[in-house]
């Protein structure tokens, strides 16, 4: 029997997948060989893809976090400032050197404006989300509109009181767990604290997630919940600018949009009825819409695309980033009682200085060592390992003969840069003092990428730090935190394999012991 006879004897059930599979592999091959030829022409160093199926490094994604293979490529290419390869079918250029990262993200901002997460231009709501927006004018006006939300001073006074109110809920929860001999779950405690603080102080809601899970917490969790569908939706968002048709694979789903829209409708209608002005995020959105009256096609609607996009921009990924940071910090502090003690002394001192026994805005703002602990945690466990940009024009790199072509996708792996001994001495050691004003040097400042870099750097981390400091300062002030589930410091192998952010795969459980009992 010759080859064609063997083929025709196969059942149609086998023939169809065989045909489709072969077609995909042939297309892949064409994609690989074309891009490799371009890299060769532009003198970009690259890793030769294995025949038809990309790089073996990424075969383990799904059982390990994508950081594991990217970190391996980073370490194995020490002699190069950048190196290109494929993540499955997606071509990327990993930029290793901080000087080059600066050149691309800061100096060439106009040519690398788009993030790798850019939304399709047809997506009218996602185009108003800051990190997905592809129009510089829209991005600039959105960032300006939101800027009052990012100043810590705005979160002082009444707004800070709404964040501080979460302390009592958290202490009650910790005490109940302790009395039952149970540990506390650091990520859950942090999510409740940060999300309720954000819901109440930014959106004017009255959330208490210990009593009833709030609407916004459900929205945030459904966005960030690790799983194959979220991993694939993140890949599709980067590679194809979103998936049309498959709702569950969309990065921003109709469900996210509807939840945000209905919350905004309720809150804006209430403000309209009461006429109250809270000077919060809802009022900023209402003012924005009033300024637009009649200028945009949807400006007559009760809630515009811009309001929904900016609302999602402020929420999705943000509470989660701050909560994960707080959770990792509790893990590290549980392993380092000496640093907990320094935070306690710092809190006592700040309270004395401001003549109070409360966690006021002024007290939290003075917790400088705790701030160093948060920076050091963001170094060891940066929120994302895919800081990305896409070249919107050809970029020739100064001092080299290398050119990144229009459409080239740049990625920077903050995890690898942060653990490179060239930039940080003893990089795997948790040492908050490396961020003290005395020790902070220019080399380390340039290599620290915990909040990104350039004009698209995270605008909200200071507000995030304020909330995380309030949570951790108050927890450590009242309790000694001891490790239960994780007695060794985590690394990339402990990250969730199916998450698009760096989050621990298992719950971090810690025990709490009240200081007054320990003092007896
Ligand atoms: C404290 C924990 C946080 C961490 C570690 C963090 C980290 C990051 C990172 C790495 C980026 C990408 C920057 C880049 O591409 O160069 C980013 C972007 C962003 N972050 Fe944060 N973030 C945090 C908290 C927040 C908070 C609390 C908010 C809002 C109040 C916020 C709002 C944003 C926005 C709007 C962007 C997109 C900026 C743009 O594309 O122009 N972040 N963040």
UniProtKB/TrEMBL annotation:
The parts of the chain that form a coiled coil are none
Q: Which cofactor does it need?
A: heme
Membrane-crossing ranges are: 6-31, 82-101
Location in the cell = Endoplasmic reticulum membrane; Microsome membrane
Which residues does UniProt assign to the signal peptide? none
Look up keyword Transmembrane helix and say if it applies.
yes
The topology of this chain with respect to the membrane is: Peripheral membrane protein
Q: What does the record give under GO molecular function?
A: heme binding; iron ion binding; monooxygenase activity; oxidoreductase activity, acting on paired donors, with incorporation or reduction of molecular oxygen
Q: Which Gene3D superfamilies match?
A: Cytochrome P450
| Assigned keywords, A-Z | Endoplasmic reticulum, Heme, Iron, Membrane, Metal-binding, Microsome, Monooxygenase, Oxidoreductase, Transmembrane, Transmembrane helix
Where is heme annotated to bind? 458
Which Gene Ontology cellular component terms are annotated? Answer: endoplasmic reticulum membrane
- What InterPro entries does the entry give? Cyt_P450, Cyt_P450_CS, Cyt_P450_E_grp-I, Cyt_P450_sf, Insect_CytP450_Detox
Family of the protein in this entry = Belongs to the cytochrome P450 family.
Q: What is this protein called?
A: Cytochrome P450
Q: What is the lineage of its organism?
A: Eukaryota, Metazoa, Ecdysozoa, Arthropoda, Hexapoda
